[in-house]
């Protein structure tokens, strides 16, 4: 009997849920509330065993509960809670309570009392902990209400004496999250518990369970985060915790000490075992430094990271971190760094190898050597030598941050950073190169350091080399030998890795412009000029020669005496390079050639405004001339488009804007052309040719609108409306064309229907924008909507045609910033004549290296397309890890494309290009719909009925010569 | 061995009645009987097996395991020998090599044979890191990672609650192929630590590496030959990896050789025991095993006379015999060449002599060798420096420290430092000397759960700092201790419960009637003892918890009342407090 009943109840339950589900997707009905809680109630009452009840609860937890019924459900759960004997069921109920009170829009204060009451009689520690967790959820929802918080904190304090660590844990968490932060509140509410939250938490720093200790520290940190000023007295307690047995405690304690050091940097603390006193921040710094050699690497990482943000520490302490007093057989020994430095300052460069170079010097007083206690000593030396690369990276980062704030420290840590360039793990090397770049303003590299730095140029990893080039861009070199060395090494790099060409040139550009005086004495040698003899003219296409010229020309920019050293061909080469590599070669004031170069340079800034003006003027002109003769409009549009395109080519800053508008005008032009009256008046049978034109126009407009929507970054919703509007017009045009050409009405019905749906969704998406669209196609269409819905397809078409023709042309407002997504394939270059040979049926990997600009979310949208000569196309999705982000708006795609084909008789070219994939569902317009429906239900998404996926090619195709050979048998 | 000395490590530990031998090494500096530890010290007559519970070998260097076959086969020991897996794999190779040099080259007799090495290895039990091995019922050992060489381990030896940690040789800074030593806070009673570099704090290893590479590179560019005497295993592999990566990076062509035989086998093991190496190698071995060298080739004796630059790794490391010494003799005359000593050299070896600046060496057969080549010393030896030793002590928090494997003078310094900074006593016995350390053993007692719960329920939360008083019965039976509740103890022992009551009379001067006195006492107690339940019973007595107080008039003097206070011994604390309270008399104010 019971089983039967249960079954029925169960059925009922599931049925109800489903019903409620349907309700959600359509319109909300209030009916759901009683049914749901009632079902649960029935269920729980009928559950014969705890296991059954648990099952029901589990099932129940999977379904969302709407706001109105939460309270009812909670009541039922609580009721059952009191009756339940099994701890696991109670636990589940407790967790459900927490879950339910999280429901958005539900205010849990009504159930708080009940929740607190349940605590009273609970015996099971687990359930108790879970209940406290629930209270925490309730409390976090009611943070504005101080009295509720007080009450909860009191409850938590009461349970702090519980014997289970879980309960104590939760209590501390609760206190941490809800404890009073403002002093005033604590005074008002004269409750015993609230008096001193910090003290209560502090007492648990010595708890017997490490988990509770951790929770206590975390609660303290939580209080700090919420704005409570922690007391300084905690500091000594926290220091003791640093010696804890458990790593999570130590890790949290390190954090706490850091927080305190930031709060009370200037307070004075005594040094134990001596009479001295030091600043708290220094003391804390020393202690955290000490933790850099902790046994657990988690703590070490934590400590190393935090060190970086302790900028108030006094420089004396800071510099100790790099100092590790060396000794050998009790005699003081100089570090290799010191030796290198001395070598440098004594002016002895050649080999410098002397016998007994590192022989220990003076005797050390045994008593004066502190082996371990002197905390800060050598912390970074240890950190940088750590076993785990995570620690090393953290240490490098910390070094970077400290060095940025202290130039003298930057100078000191240089040696160590340079050493890190030889780390065995690439990430660490990369990180240290980046660090070095960041602090490079504060430092000048010595020659021996530069030597080590440059040695890394031979690294086989491209990332490292490029990072290093960037570093060299902004380093200061002290001597001319240094510059020469750098140049030689860079050229060596160039021959070894020709693909680095661009980045090396760029690097030399900056190197030259930063050190004109150091380059000057090198010029004759570099250009291999001779006072008496003419030397042969170097090959202009040699990348190495270009590299040298780039260095020299950039140096010459601020060194007017340099051009005098140039020979004739240098001037010629200058003119050539200035034209071909204008971004690398600056304008120079060359004697006798002033006319060539000078007008360009000073006029760049003032010119910007006129071109912008020009852009706007030409647009104005187009928009104002609405009522011109159609022929006139067409001509004007054509000219404007041409102007805009040219403008885009000339002014790179405006390129995006100009292209965007040109595309728009182009669409408009096509539309106008397609709608020319005389074409439409021709009788239908003679119509084919024009028809072809119109449908092609419609198709092109559609394509262009997708380009406009997805290829430009910075497009705002105002533009999106207009783009969509244009698309709608194109669709109308399509409809008209098909209506004209197809016989029979049946297919038209469907098309009309679809079109009207689209109009409808357009209206829904852009309802807010509609007022701006007076007199437009849509505006008119919506006016006629009631008629359209009822009329026959042929009439619809007629109406559409007239509205299309009569509608005015929308003004396209320009956003502030508009950039066109561009891609440039650097590799393969497409110049190679040697076909890539591979056995047919097997794969060959083709390295693709491309720069992407202004692409949003490249990981999701950028694809590589390979076109084979037989028309076969292959679309490759690069891995997300293949994209690097070197700067804002810039991305770099370095990936491998696998090619394969059946055997060919002779080598042939394939095309590789990059595509931008789009999905009209992902557009900004539909995102709005998504947002509005999101909160209601996930399933209620508008189905992607109009989700059109497509791709836009946005890079020049590159041809690759390949040759699949037949497999040998 | 190894007491105030380097080499011939052999330490005997007696812990709670168990005898453990730590390491069994030979001494490089001697060629006579002194090269092996004096095993007769352990026992003059009778077999060693009866006396030793186990032998632990920390790593495969000969100064830690060289005497093992002699000890187990020639002297005679059949008990278990513990070592880690890599050590077990590599150790026999080295022993065999050592045997060959001594027997075949020097023609010594009375030395252990190959068969003996094999037999000896059969007695070895291999252990994993952090695996607790029960040697017998009471003795357990556990291995920790020690860096130093492949498979080097520190061992914790534990009997009951007494424990000893023996570090063997260890390294606290990671290198190109191994990680750093690590130990948890095991708080042993005694930490036996090596102290080779007791007085040295080393420069950062990056400087060392760069220096090394620079020196090698310069010599090779000059066309000189570089000899690097190494032990076949350990440093050699690190330097190989270092040179290999450098060669690859700089695209150098000069050949690098490694003396054959040993190396191939050993490198094979290095490839195998990837888990024992450092983070980098462990992470990259999927793409390429770092020990598969591209530039390093096997060495043939004929190559030594080849013209042109080359780098040769040759064994042994202290130039005392074998191939490295042969090559050294050939190359010593040319000042373009260089020898780099990457590690420690024991006194008496050629290596030690040239390092101390001796330029003329007397070789065997009264021949004088003039050393013109450059001699460099690079401390690549993977021992912990002073700071590292201190760091390990800080990690493990031992109660006592004992230093071995170092020179006496240097130990003295470190000992002083340890005592000063950690406030633990530190010892440094010489060979043959015995140090006795008194431990403070804690005795574990089983407690019944019911009792524990009951006792913790009373009173406040347990506090780490304060000892807590609890009532219970300690039963010592069959060599085990149990703490149970009195009732259960009675039940187990089959005894009836006896009540023990203390009764005390307190005289109070009070002229009033008895029941009034009682009332006054009641009010007084109620006022003082707020936390306890004080009751006034109808029969004229007062109870405080379970303590009974009755008042009677004194038979002779009516003005004196006698208060009878009676309590069971469980309430001794409260009872005695009450009597003292009552003895002070009642407050004068009548209420």
What this model shows, in words?
Chain B: Its cofactor is Zn(2+). Chain B: This is Integrator complex subunit 11. Chain B: One of its GO terms (cellular component) is cytoplasm. Chain B: One of its GO terms (biological process) is snRNA processing. Chain B: Pfam families: Beta-Casp, IntS11_C, Lactamase_B_6, RMMBL. The complex is a heterodimer of chains A (969) and B (591). By secondary structure, chain A is an alpha+beta fold. Among the domains of chain A are: 245-332 and 373-442, Alpha Horseshoe (Leucine-rich Repeat Variant); 452-590, no CATH class; 610-762 and 799-806, no CATH class; 821-922 and 948-965, Immunoglobulins (Immunoglobulin-like, Sandwich), CATH 2.60.40.10. Chain A is built from 42 helices and 18 strands. In chain A, strands 10, 12, 13, 16, 17 and 18 form a six-stranded mixed β-sheet that branches. A four-stranded antiparallel β-sheet of chain A has the order 9-11-15-14, with no helix packed on it. Chain A has a two-stranded antiparallel ribbon with strand order 1-2. Chain B has 591 residues and is of the alpha/beta class. Chain B has four domains: 11-201 and 382-427, 4-Layer Sandwich (Metallo-beta-lactamase, Chain A), CATH 3.60.15; 205-377, Rossmann fold (3-Layer(aba) Sandwich), CATH 3.40.50; 446-493, no CATH class; 501-584, TATA-Binding Protein, CATH 3.30.310. In chain B, the strands form six sheets. Chain B has a seven-stranded mixed β-sheet, with helices on one face. In chain B, α3 (68-76) crosses α5 (114-122), α4 (85-105) packs antiparallel against α5 and α4 (85-105) runs antiparallel to α8. The longest helix of chain B has 21 residues, at 85-105. The radius of gyration of chain B is 36 Å and the shape is elongated. Chain B starts with 10 loop residues before the first strand and ends in an 8-residue tail after the last helix. The mean pLDDT of chain B is 80. Chains A and B meet through β3 and α21 of A and α6, α7, α12 and α13 of B.
């Amino acid at each position: 009997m019971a089983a039967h009943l249960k079954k029925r109840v169960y059925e009922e339950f599931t049925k109800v849920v489903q019903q409620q589900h349907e309700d959600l997707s359509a319109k909300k009905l209030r009916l759901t509330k009683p049914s749901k809680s009632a079902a649960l109630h029935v269920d729980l009452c009928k559950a014969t065993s705890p296991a059954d009840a648990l099952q029901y609860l589990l099932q129940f937890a999977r379904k969302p509960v709407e706001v109105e019924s939460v309270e009812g459900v909670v009541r039922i759960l609580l009721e059952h809670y009191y009756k339940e004997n099994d701890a696991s069921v109670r636990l589940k109920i407790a967790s459900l309570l927490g879950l339910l009170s999280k429901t958005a829009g539900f205010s849990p204060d009504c159930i708080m009392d009940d929740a607190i009451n349940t605590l009273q009689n609970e015996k099971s520690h687990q359930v108790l902990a879970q209940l406290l967790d629930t209270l925490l959820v309730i409390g976090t929802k009611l943070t504005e209400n101080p009295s509720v918080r007080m009450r909860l904190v009191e409850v938590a304090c009461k349970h702090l004496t519980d014997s289970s660590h879980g309960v104590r844990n939760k209590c501390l968490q609760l206190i941490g999250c809800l404890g009073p932060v403002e002093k005033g509140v604590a005074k008002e509410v004269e409750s015993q518990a609230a008096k001193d939250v910090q003290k209560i938490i502090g007492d648990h720093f010595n708890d017997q369970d490490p988990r509770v200790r951790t929770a206590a520290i975390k609660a303290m940190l939580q209080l700090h985060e919420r704005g409570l000023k922690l007391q300084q007295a905690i500091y000594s307690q926290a220091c003791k915790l640093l010696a804890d047995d458990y790593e999570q405690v130590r890790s949290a304690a390190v954090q706490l000490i850091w927080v305190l050091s930031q709060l009370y940097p200037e307070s004075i603390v005594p040094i134990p075992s001596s009479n001295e006193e030091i600043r708290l921040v220094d003391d804390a710094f020393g202690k955290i430094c000490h933790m850099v050699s902790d046994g657990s690497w988690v703590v070490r990482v934590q400590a190393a990271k935090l060190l970086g943000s302790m900028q108030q520490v006094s420089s004396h302490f800071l510099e100790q971190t790099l100092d590790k007093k060396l000794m050998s057989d009790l005699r003081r020994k100089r570090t290799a760094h010191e030796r290198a430095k001395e070598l440098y300052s004594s002016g002895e460069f050649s080999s410098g190898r002397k016998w007994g170079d590192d022989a220990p010097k003076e005797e050390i007083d045994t008593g004066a050597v502190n082996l371990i206690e002197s905390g800060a000593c050598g912390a970074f030396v240890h950190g940088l030598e750590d076993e785990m690369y995570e620690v090393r990276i953290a240490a490098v980062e910390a070094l970077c941050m400290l060095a940025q704030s202290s130039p003298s420290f930057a100078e000191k840590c240089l040696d160590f950073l340079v050493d890190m360039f030889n780390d065995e793990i690439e990430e660490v090397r990369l990180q240290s190169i980046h660090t070095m770049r960041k602090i490079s303003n504060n430092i000048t590299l010595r020659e021996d350091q530069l030597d080590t730095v440059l040695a890394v140029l031979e690294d086989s990893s491209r990332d490292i080399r490029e990072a290093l080039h960037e570093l060299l861009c902004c380093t200061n070199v002290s001597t001319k030998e240094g510059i020469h060395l750098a140049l030689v090494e860079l050229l060596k790099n160039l021959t070894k890795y020709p693909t680095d060409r661009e980045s090396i040139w760029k690097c030399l550009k900056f190197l030259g412009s930063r050190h004109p005086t150091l380059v000057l004495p090198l010029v004759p040698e570099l250009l291999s000029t001779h006072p008496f003899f003419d030397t042969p003219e170097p090959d202009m296409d040699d990348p190495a020669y270009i590299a040298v010229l780039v260095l020299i020309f950039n140096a010459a920019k601020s060194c007017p005496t340099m051009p005098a050293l140039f020979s004739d061909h240098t001037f010629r080469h200058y003119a050539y390079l200035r034209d071909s590599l204008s971004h690398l070669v600056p304008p120079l004031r060359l004697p006798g050639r002033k006319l060539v170069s000078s007008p360009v340079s000073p006029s760049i800034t003032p010119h910007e405004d006129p071109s912008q003006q020009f852009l706007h003027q030409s647009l104005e002109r187009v928009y104002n001339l609405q009522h011109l003769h159609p022929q006139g409009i067409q001509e004007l549009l054509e000219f404007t488009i041409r102007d805009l395109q040219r403008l885009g080519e000339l002014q790179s800053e405006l390129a995006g804007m100009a292209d965007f508008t040109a595309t728009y005008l182009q669409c408009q032009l096509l539309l106008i052309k397609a709608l020319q009256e005389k074409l439409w008046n021709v009788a239908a049978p003679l119509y084919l040719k024009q028809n072809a034109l119109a449908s092609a126009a419609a198709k092109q407009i559609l394509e262009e609108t997708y380009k406009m929507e997805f290829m430009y970054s910075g497009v705002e919703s105002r533009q999106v409306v207009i783009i969509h509007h244009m698309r709608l017009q194109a669709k109308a045009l399509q409809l008209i064309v098909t209506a004209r050409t197809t016989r029979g009405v049946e297919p038209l019905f469907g098309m009309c229907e679809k079109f009207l749906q689209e109009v409808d969704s357009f209206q829904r998406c852009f309802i807010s924008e509609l007022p701006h669209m007076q007199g437009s196609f849509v505006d008119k269409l919506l006016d006629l909507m009631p008629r359209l819905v009822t009329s026959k397809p042929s009439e619809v078409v007629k109406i559409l045609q007239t509205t299309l023709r009569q509608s005015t042309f929308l003004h396209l407002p320009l956003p502030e910033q508009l950039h066109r997504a561009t891609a440039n394939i650097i590799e393969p270059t497409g110049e190679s004549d040697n076909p890539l040979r591979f056995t047919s049926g097997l794969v060959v990997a083709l390295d693709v290296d491309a720069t992407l600009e202004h692409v949003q979310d490249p990981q999701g949208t950028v694809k590589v397309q390979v076109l084979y000569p037989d028309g076969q196309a292959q679309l490759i999705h690069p891995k997300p890890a293949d994209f690097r982000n070197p700067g804002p708006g810039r991305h770099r795609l370095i990936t491998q494309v696998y090619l394969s084909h059946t055997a060919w008789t002779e080598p042939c070219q394939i095309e590789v290009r990059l595509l931008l994939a789009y999905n009209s569902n992902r557009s900004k317009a539909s995102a709005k719909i998504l947002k509005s429906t999101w909160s209601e239900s996930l399933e209620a998404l508008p189905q992607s009925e109009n989700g059109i996926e497509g791709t836009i090619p946005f890079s020049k195709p590159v041809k690759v010569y390949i040759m699949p050979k037949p497999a040998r048998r | 061995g190894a007491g105030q000395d380097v080499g011939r490590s052999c330490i005997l530990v007696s812990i709670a009645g168990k005898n453990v031998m730590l390491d069994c090494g030979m001494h490089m500096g001697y060629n006579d009987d002194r090269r092996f530890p004096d095993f007769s010290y352990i026992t003059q007559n009778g077999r060693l097996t009866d006396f030793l519970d186990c032998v632990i070998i920390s790593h495969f260097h000969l100064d830690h395991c060289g005497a093992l076959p002699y000890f187990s086969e020639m002297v005679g020991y059949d008990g278990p020998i513990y070592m880690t897996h890599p050590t077990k794999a590599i150790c026999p190779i080295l022993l065999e090599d050592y045997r060959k040099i001594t027997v075949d080259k020097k023609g010594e007799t009375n030395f252990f044979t190959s068969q003996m090495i094999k037999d000896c290895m059969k007695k070895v039990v291999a252990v994993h890191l952090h695996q607790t091995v029960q040697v017998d019922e009471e003795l357990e050992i556990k291995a920790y990672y020690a860096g130093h060489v492949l498979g080097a381990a520190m061992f914790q030896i534990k009997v009951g609650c007494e424990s000893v940690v023996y570090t063997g040789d260890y390294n606290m800074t990671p290198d190109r192929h191994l990680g750093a030593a690590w130990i948890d806070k095991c708080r042993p009673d005694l930490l036996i630590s090596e102290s080779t570099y007791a007085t040295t704090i080393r420069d950062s290893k990056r400087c060392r590496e760069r220096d090394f590479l620079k020196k090698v590179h310069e010599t090779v560019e000059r066309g000189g030959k570089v000899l690097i005497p190494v032990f076949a295993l350990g440093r050699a592999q690190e330097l190989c990896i270092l040179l290999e990566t450098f060669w690859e990076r700089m695209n150098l062509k000069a050949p690098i050789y490694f003396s054959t035989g040993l190396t191939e086998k050993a490198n094979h093991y290095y490839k195998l025991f990837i888990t024992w190496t450092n983070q980098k190698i462990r992470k990259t071995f999927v793409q390429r095993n770092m020990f598969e060298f591209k530039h390093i080739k096997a060495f043939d004796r004929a190559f030594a006379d080849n013209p042109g630059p080359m780098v040769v790794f040759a064994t042994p490391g202290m130039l005392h015999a074998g191939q490295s010494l042969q090559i050294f003799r050939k190359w010593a005359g040319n000042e373009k060449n260089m020898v780099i000593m990457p590690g420690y050299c024991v006194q008496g070896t050629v290596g030690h002599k040239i390092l101390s600046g001796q330029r003329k060496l007397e070789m065997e057969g009264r021949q004088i060798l003039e050393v013109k080549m450059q001699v460099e010393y690079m401390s690549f030896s993977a021992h912990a420096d002073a700071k590292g030793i201190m760091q390990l002590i800080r990690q493990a928090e031992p109660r006592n420290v004992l230093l071995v494997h170092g020179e006496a003078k240097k130990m003295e310094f470190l000992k002083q430092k340890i005592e000063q900074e950690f406030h633990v006593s530190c010892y440094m016995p010489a060979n043959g000397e015995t140090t006795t350390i008194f431990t403070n053993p804690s005795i574990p007692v089983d407690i019944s759960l019911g009792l524990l719960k009951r006792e913790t329920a009373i009173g406040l939360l347990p506090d780490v700092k304060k000892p807590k008083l609890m009532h219970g019965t300690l039963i010592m039976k069959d060599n085990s201790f149990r703490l149970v509740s009195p009732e259960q103890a009675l039940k187990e022992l089959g005894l009836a419960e006896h009540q023990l009551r203390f009764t005390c009379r307190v005289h109070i001067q009070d002229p009033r009637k008895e029941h009034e006195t009682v009332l006054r006492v009641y009010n007084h107690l109620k006022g003082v003892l707020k936390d306890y339940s004080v009751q006034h019973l109808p029969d004229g007595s007062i109870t405080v918890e379970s303590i009974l107080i009755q008042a009677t008039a004194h038979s002779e003097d009516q003005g004196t009342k006698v208060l009878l206070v009676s309590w069971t011994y469980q309430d001794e604390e409260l009872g005695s407090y009450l009597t003292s309270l009552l003895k002070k008399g009642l407050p004068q104010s009548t209420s």
